[in-house]
Amino acid sequence: MKMNNDGQSFFDMYGNNTRPAAEQDVRKRVYLCPRKILWQTEGEGAQVENSSALLLDRSVQISLEAKNPCILRNNGKRAGVLLDFGMEIHGGIIISAWKESNGTGTKVRIRFGESAMEAMSDIGDDKNATNDHANRDIVTNISSMSMTPVGETGFRFVRLDLLEEQAELVLKTVKAVLVIKDVPYRGSFQCSDELLNRIWYTGAYTVHLNMQDYIWDGIKRDRLVWVGDMHPEITTIQAVFGSDKSITRSLEFVKAETPLPGWMNGYPAYSMWWILILHDYFLHTNDLEYLKSNRDYLLGLCDQLSASIDENGKDTTPQIRFLDWPSHADTVVVDAGLQALHTIATKKLKRIFQILGEKEYELRCGEDLVKLRKYPADYKDSKQAAALLVMAGLLDADTANEKLLKAGGAKGMSTFMGYYILTARAMAGDLEGCLDCVREYWGGMLNLGATTFWEDFDVEWMEHAAPIDSLIKNPEEVDIHGTFGRYCYKGYRHSLCHGWASGVTPWLTENVLGLKVLEPGCRLIEAEPKLGGLKWVRGSFPTPYGEVRLSARQEEDGTIHAGVTAPDEVKIRKMPGICWE
């Protein structure tokens, strides 16, 4: 942070005693113009003049003279306008106003919405509009010749209403202020199906918005470090951006908030997910020093998990016992999911202790795995629990896929558990079925106007549903945002940008592009593209040494021809059955 040509910094200018209290924000602010005027008041009582001026790409810097303004004028009714910025955004807006009629400022109500209908809603209505976690319904005072920043939340739509009688507001611009980390998309994915391409990048952008100083789960609601929800997010980050400091910052934050014998975020499952994330982070980075710094915590956590296995091999971790929201009410399914997750976490712990040279704990993990594998978990009709049991080696992939996972296509899918369900199906060799499910489920959100993936989604919600960028005018249309949702995310409280829904992105990288990390630091990567009916695929995967790039195509005779390049430090294991060029 240089201040002048003498090389002085802010801290040099104001003294080192400032340094401990200062934390640099690594994010950038970018101004974005609205793309569309979606609605405005009409008639003499509530006038909106020249609203199209707000679509012009003009500087937010205010000037003395109003030129080509947009004017809101109240004459018995309240003037209002609804702006569509065209895509989900994390941040707020900045209102540049030339003049207001009161002389002391005029009151303006600003409503942010992830859907158009949310921006038109009132807090406390029957569709559960809230200001939880981040204010999105705000009244502020706008003065003449002002540039007023308002809000920090997740949104695509903004409604402005002039509140006071006989008031007039002369506007230059209302721009979004995108607050985001400026990091390159080092990973990539392209194939012969454009819908799959859009899905891959939408998942990447969903996590990008949530990858702030820390990794959040949602940018409107759930602006918290939910470590369990982070596993699909971390998997996406490593497939798209490579390693990022927000990963270790988030892991350290949750660890510091959870002294043992506590369970992270209050859920034993989330401490298990923390182990998975730490293992996978090490696998990507080979950061041995960071792994060693977590040694004592890992030993204590292993003690807790080991003590939570009964004589029958059943996981007995205490409440709150949680897998995901759709399975929340079924204790048998939750038990099955936690049995699988406990097994996977213990496998990862065993490998970590082997790397750290902790022989006693490595052996204990081996003993715990023998116990855990004895218990016959009942997954009932839960695709989530069945998928985790497959990944834990407790259930045969072919059996699970034939009996349950492929049944009904995208029905019974879960945004949080989507990555794991697809992975289990791919383990059964059902790649074409997986891609059909991806198109139906994540493609279904795109068909409804999504530019990021949602906290929850059910394909049955699509019947008569209007896109999120439309206003409901026909009584036969369904407001998908305000009508649906469950548990803690009913109606407009439902987040439409949730990082845990991004797992489809790394799944496509791992299973279609076919690149999987086998050794720490990406020193060995498996290459096995599987097209699943696609004509071609190409893309890249970020490693600490640069990008691995692969392209593959299917010839008319059915053979797959592929080529792959990698940095010198990275070895590629080329799988058989492919004509490598």
Poorly predicted segments: none
Radius of gyration from the alpha-carbon trace, in angstroms: 26 Å
Shape, per Cα inertia axes? globular
Report the span from N to C terminus.
49 Å
Strand content: 15-25%
Notes on the structure:
With 581 residues, the chain is of the alpha+beta class. It has three domains: 27-181, Jelly Rolls (Sandwich), CATH 2.60.120.260; 188-455 and 495-512, Glycosyltransferase (Alpha/alpha barrel); 518-580, Maltose phosphorylase, domain 3 (Sandwich), CATH 2.60.420.10. Helices cover 32% and strands 22% of the residues. It contains 16 helices and 19 strands. The protein has helices at 10-14, 116-119, 194-210, 230-240, 245-257, 268-285, 288-293, 295-306, 331-356, 359-372, 383-391, 397-405, 418-427, 431-447, 480-483, 504-513; strands at residues 28-32, 36-40, 46-49, 70-74, 80-100, 106-113, 137-142, 146-162, 168-180, 188-191, 465-466, 478-479, 515-519, 524-527, 536-543, 546-554, 560-565, 571-574, 579-580. The strands form four sheets. Strands 1, 2, 3, 4, 5, 6, 7, 8 and 9 form a nine-stranded antiparallel beta sheet that branches. A hairpin with a 2-residue loop joins strand 15 (536-543) and strand 16. Helix 3 (194-210) crosses helix 4, helix 3 (194-210) crosses helix 14 (431-447) and helix 13 packs parallel to helix 16. It is globular and about 75 Å long.
